[in-house]
Amino acid sequence: PDSRARYEWIRRRGVLSYREEDLKAAHTHFDCALKIAEGLRDRPAIAKQLRNKGSVLRRLGEYKDALAALQASLKIMREDGDAATGAVLNNIGDVYRELEEPTSAEQYYRDAMDAFGRQGDAIETTHVLDSLSLLALERGDTQTAARQLNTALEAYRRADNWEYQLRVYTLLIRAAIMDGDVERARRYSADGTALVETHELPVHDEFRLYSARADRISGRVQLAEARLLEALQGKPENDANHAELLLELAKTLEQ
Q1: Cα–Cα distances in Å, from 83 out to 7, 27, 41, 115, 207?
Q2: How far is CA 95 from CA 56, 129, 163, in A?
Q3: Residue 14 and residue 109: Cα distance in Å, rounded?
Q4: Full-model pTM
Q5: Is 195 exposed, middle or buried (0-12, 13-18, 19+ CB in 10 A)?
Q6: In which region does residue 28 sit, left (phi positive, over 0), alpha (psi from -120 to 50) or beta (all else)?
Q7: pLDDT digits (tens, 9 = 90+) for 123-136
Q8: The dihedral of CA 201, 203, 204, 209: what is its sign?
Q9: Separation of alpha carbons 7 and 49, rounded Å
């Protein structure tokens, strides 16, 4: 009978489902939590669940609905004077990037950096810089991307943030491959692998994929095959990653 306790319980079930990559269940839970928050007229909770709903809709590829939910969340936060808008601004930037609207994406990413900066959150500010570097890679500007990524890498090293460092190494490998510098790509792969082994980090699909690609292009096809089989024998994070890993394995076997 306690609506606030029920809201919190359902919200946490949504977070758990999201982290387990059960996106449809996560959406159901977040939507239910949103309705409870609306019944309670709890504006901060409504804004939070709109953001959660928008994030999961983006992952499901429902970009129009995701954007509507995220914009509604941002509107409430701004009306209520909530300064912690960085996360929702960053999420809106992600939607525009996936809609292939880089100008809008970059504007929201820069607004997110400003919001995180005003709160003194150096790590999240740097994390948005990673997103800007991804935009640079997608437009083929590897020089800008590499500069931004190296800035981010130094910030993460100072903060001892190992997991974000591994994300940066993944993008640095990708940039080096785009530049045709396979040996540099393999050096970044080795640095990332050392980081994983030293700190016992979970290895995400993209790192395995681009490390294997660097090995394949440099002619180390057996090592590339081993990396890919290890990734596939585990549980890829989503169907899209599973497909990319399979395609890279096919290219490796062909070579």
Answers
A1: 24, 26, 20, 7, 34
A2: 11, 16, 23
A3: 26
A4: 0.88
A5: middle
A6: alpha
A7: 999 999 999 999 99
A8: positive
A9: 10
